[in-house]
Amino acid sequence: MPAQAPAAEDAPRRLAQRALRGLPWEVGVAKPDPAIVVDDVTRTFGGLTAVSVDHLEIQRGGITGLIGPNGAGKTTLFNLLTGFDQPNTGTWSFNGRSLGKLAPHQVARLGVVRTFQLTKALSRLSVLQNMLLGAQGQSGESFLKALVPGTWRAQEKANTEKAMDLLRRFKLDAKKDDFAGTLSGGQRKLLEMARALMSDPEVVMLDEPMAGVNPALTQSLLGHVKDLREQGMTVIFVEHDMDVVRDISDWVVVMAAGRVIAEGPPESISQNQAVVDAYLGAHHDAPLTAEEEDQVLAEAQRAIAREAKRDGEVLRSDGTRADDERTTP
Amino acid sequence: MGELLNAIAIAGKSALGFQAVFYALLAIGLNMHFGYTGLLNFGQIAFAMLGGFGIAVSVTNWGLPFWLGVVIGVAASVVLSLLLGLPTLRLRADYLAIVTIAAAEGLRLLFRSVSATPITNGTQGISAFNGGFVRLSPWDTNRRFRLLGTTWGGGELWVTAVGWLLVAIFCLLVWLLVRSPWGRVVKAIREDEDAVRALGKNVYAYKMQSLVLGGVIGAFGGMVYAVATGSANPDQYQNANTFLAYAVLILGGAARVLGPVVGAIVLLFILQFTDTGLRLLIDNGIIPEGLLSSTDVAQLRFVLVGIGLMLLLVFRPQGIFGDRREVMLDAR
Q: What is the ipTM of this complex?
């Protein structure tokens, strides 16, 4: 039945969205089925508080967009969650398992993989080698077993097949033997995402996956991110492009100056006063000095004068006289 | 013409002799460190010194059998790489470079110091510890053999043969490793550590394994040198040798299994040939005495090698065996 087919495809997405639908749009709200829970995490660099998150839950199986102005602490939060940086205080857990004090590779082995804002393609390795590196639990990666090819050859073959499947999905299969360093910026983003998927992760964290990617490729990247959700993965991504965020996220978390200032479904965010303040500046109605006040006043008066003049013209041109001028000659 | 052939024969002996083995082994270790893993080890000679003195001290001071000395030399180099690696491998690559260069010079000064004289015999060095090895020679050690236009002592032939056997074994080992998934991880670490961490690999452990392996190979180089010369003197292990080993590596082509071997053969051939050749030209009056005296030749040959390396880096930056596409790629 044609009518049901798209509905069935959309089913997982609607699961996550529906689960989040009834929730209040407030910071730190508890999710029905959180994959990641963050509590009281702070990270300071000298006097600067880069991240200070009281409570945050990430819904399993959904796409959570993390947005915020530059320097809001989004990437620092990513680094903390994946073990690349250690926080000053706080705890966070994945599937109820605390991730504090774990090294990056241990976090990755638990099924939380990430990509980087500045793409990290391994330049002087071929595309296929890049992919094979993503596979977990390879016996050939231990020093002694590496010397006996028989112990890892079968596994390597299986991994290669899996890698080729992924490369075909990401349309990189023709490039499998090229050095990753010869790929374009967008292709590197694709490769990095495909490589992360080699480990069959539960949570995929994408740091600005669309940055510097041309619009056509953005569409295909978006499709891939949606695919991840269809496969039941939890996706957290940092992005600046609001159209992208609105398009694919089930839930949006807004950070500013290290704090989570708002969260809710994408449609709630643009109406949120705290978000508008964070992006446009909260102090746009704060008191000014006497000189600035005079300047602003003069500026405003000039603007009003211009406006009045133009209004007059508009009236004239809209009115009968404009028509008269045009018809009389 | 006969003199020229003679110069080539002398250079050929040097290119196949124990010194070539020494540099080849140092460079195979460096290839593991620098070529594959991206570790900047500027003190490879320290590992060689521990290898050489491991045998020398064990045999002469402690009266142990030769083979136990080999084991002790290897163990000492493992300990050194752990000591150097533990604090620095978590940091950026530059820190390992600083620590290794300091350790190499520091260890040499320590070994030649007065306080170490009871063990290392200070600047005199230790000799006559290689008997246990030379005795096994299948060739008569009192005879000289004609080979490729030059003469070789039986013992010398034996040490050199075993040295090349070691080179072959370590090349095979490196070849097996770098084509395995282990080698893939190590090469990925050279490209970008953080990306490898994000893929669930314990970068620190891999760097440590690579450091230890390369150090042990370097220690074997030092052992070959000590056994061949029959003496272990701290001043034989000047850190300049590390940089010559780097020259060998770059000449042959980094991150290529046979790069260091061919690099060592070619470099030693050039060094010896320019030396003999220039002396020949001076003796025959082709180069006037006023322009260049035979005492300058030893220095000049390194100048020529330096110019040669510069030309190599301009016209063939990948070395003899390297892949030009690979070298020309941006690091990121």
A: 0.85
